[in-house]
Amino acid sequence: MIRVDWIGGVAFKATPPSGSSFVMDLPEDEEGLNQGPTPLEALLSAAAACSAIDVVLVLQKKRLHIESYRVEVEWTRGPEGVYPRPITSIVIRHILKGDLSEAAVKHAVELSDEKYCTVIYTLRQPTDVRSEFHIEP
After folding, report:
1. Which DSSP symbol is given to 64?
2. Contacts of 98 (CB under 8 A, 6+ apart)
3. CA distance readout (Å), 45 to 25, 75, 132
4. pTM of the predicted model over 0.70
5. How many CB atoms lie within 10 A of CB 45?
6. Do residues 89 and 83 touch, judged by C-beta distance below 8 A?
7. pLDDT tens across 109-118, in order?
């Protein structure tokens, strides 16, 4: 279970089972204090990190040397003023430097996209999401 606690304003502290807490907030121009990523930024960052971890592990198993690696995520959303504003497309761009072949990197990215990365796989699925509420005395 992930626990998300309100810490004031519109900021929330997420505590996942790993215990590695982080804060999500909104920018100041959206009623927040910019104390952390927005929930949407956290979601997209999770997709990027999930995939990147897979790619690193696959390339390391192939004994390939990575000098540097970054992932850039671009996305588009539905029109402003219409809610909800779902993400309509996501591009996850892997940028690596090192003693790497194009075929090896392509294979690692494909393995992540199609087999290993739970976050990306989940984003592609119709997922049953329900909300409940309880008011404590």
Report:
1. P
2. 64, 65, 66, 67, 68, 69
3. 15, 11, 26
4. yes
5. 14
6. no
7. 999 999 999 9
